[in-house]
Write a sequence for this structure.
């Protein structure tokens, strides 16, 4: 019943339920490592018109509409069972690529915001982004070698996180640790969604035909 | 001092490319929004009109004999996402594919699916 209009339910070509999860955080904070620990990474290219970021390309005159730049995203897939698949997308770390985030965030179940305690400020922007859009997220504190270990409470106050946002300590190189961060996110998303007034009503509404 | 566009165009930004000839210079798909995780399935028993099809259209159709996500199509064919969206728009116009949009998270049926995800992840 997941997809209306599917005439293949039960067959080998059955349409899977797909879930999108974002891996965010500052540049070099371990996003790629985390995705790679969970699944095989495949580069996904997107292209954006250069005119998008604004006045910076004015000098190209009439050319700007025809010129695009490609940005590669980390993309991974975890198959839970044949018909249930999680897609992980690493968000571009640099702020100038943020115009792509709305595309990625649309319909996302939630995000893991990776944080490095040596430069927590790099994660502020990601935290803000998901807070403002009401997208459930957890903060994954990447325990780099040599980084001083902080208590989750001090990370929470440094990032000014709401009390309900989970903080998980993780090592992006270790698969079990990354898996636990992902589980923490899905469980958190479950709670957040349950608390939303529209959830109970919408969950019972049949899907409109595509 | 580098000009503003030089600052924008560096290695991380990737190469500057011309719009793709294979989609006849179009840069934006028409029609409905296609999510990265929308699932595309080739409609069985419909023959594509070869005069309307490029090899990339046929590659996409071949991939979608089994339900395949938009992101998987782009990654496997090594084509930029925007190009794939335009190819899919063409195929949809010719009714050669069916599109299943993802369920918004707020509508994942009574949390059962998410429970299943958690259980599945625990087994990883």
């Amino acid at each position: 019943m997941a997809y209306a209009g599917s005439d293949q339910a039960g067959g080998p070509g059955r349409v899977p339920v797909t879930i999108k999860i974002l891996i965010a955080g500052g540049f070099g904070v371990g996003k790629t490592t985390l995705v790679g620990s969970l699944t095989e990474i495949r580069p996904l290219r997107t292209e954006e018109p250069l005119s998008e970021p604004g006045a910076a390309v004015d000098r190209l005159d009439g050319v700007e509409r025809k010129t695009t730049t490609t940005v590669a995203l980390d993309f991974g897939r975890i198959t839970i069972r044949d018909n249930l698949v999680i897609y992980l997308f690493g968000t571009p770390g640099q702020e100038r690529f943020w115009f792509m985030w709305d595309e990625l965030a649309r319909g996302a179940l939630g995000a893991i915001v990776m944080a490095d305690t040596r430069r927590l400020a790099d994660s502020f922007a990601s935290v803000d982004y998901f807070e403002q859009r009401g997208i459930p997220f957890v903060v994954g504190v990447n325990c780099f070698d040599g980084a001083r270990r902080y208590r989750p409470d001090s990370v929470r106050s440094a990032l000014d996180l709401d009390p309900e946002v989970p903080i998980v300590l993780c090592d992006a190189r270790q698969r079990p640790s990354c898996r636990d961060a992902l589980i923490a996110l899905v469980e958190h998303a479950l709670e957040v969604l349950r608390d939303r007034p529209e959830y109970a009503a919408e969950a019972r509404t049949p899907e409109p035909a595509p | 001092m580098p000009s503003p566009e030089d600052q924008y165009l560096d290695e991380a930004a990737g190469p500057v490319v011309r719009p793709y000839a294979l989609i006849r210079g179009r840069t934006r798909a028409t029609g409905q929004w296609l999510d990265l995780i929308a699932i595309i399935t080739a409609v069985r028993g419909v023959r594509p009109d070869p005069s309307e099809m490029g090899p990339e259209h046929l590659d996409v159709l071949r991939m979608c004999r089994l339900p395949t996500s938009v992101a998987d199509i782009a990654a496997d064919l090594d084509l930029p996402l925007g190009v794939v969206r335009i190819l899919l728009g063409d195929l949809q116009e010719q009714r050669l594919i069916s599109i299943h949009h993802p369920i918004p998270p707020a509508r994942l049926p009574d949390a059962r699916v998410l429970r299943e995800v958690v259980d599945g992840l625990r087994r990883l």
